[in-house]
Design brief:
Blueprint: E1 11-13, H1 23-28, E2 30-34, E3 37-39, E4 42-46, E5 51-60, E6 66-72, E7 75-79
Antiparallel strand pairs: 1-4, 2-3, 2-7, 4-5, 5-6
Length: about 100
């Protein structure tokens, strides 16, 4: 894919078997804001359809993969390597 672009894919997965897996993008570090809150346990996301998949506790399927739950809402992916589009670095969160 493209090298060091500021564009994130519409859909991205952590599972190497998925067609939406992109190792070069994941190496840069991708963060997810879901409905305005930071999420650190996202397995897969889709911006255009408005959903994320998160692990359902410690549950595993019969193949040993984590069970996931699909949550619908506002999805905002971003790179964690310091590039911010809105320019508000160092802003404290409400909480």
């Amino acid at each position: 894919m493209a090298e060091q672009t500021s564009e994130l894919p519409d859909r991205l997965s952590l599972d190497p078997r998925s067609p939406h897996f992109d190792e070069t993008v994941l190496q840069r570090g991708v963060g997810i804001r879901f409905n305005g809150q930071e999420k650190t346990n996202v397995e897969e996301y889709c911006v255009s359809e408005g959903w994320i998949r998160v692990a359902a506790g410690r549950s595993r399927d019969r193949y040993g993969n984590p069970m996931t739950i699909k949550l619908k809402g506002s999805v905002e992916p971003y790179f964690q390597d310091g590039e911010r589009e809105d320019g508000d670095e160092g802003v404290a969160s409400d909480g």
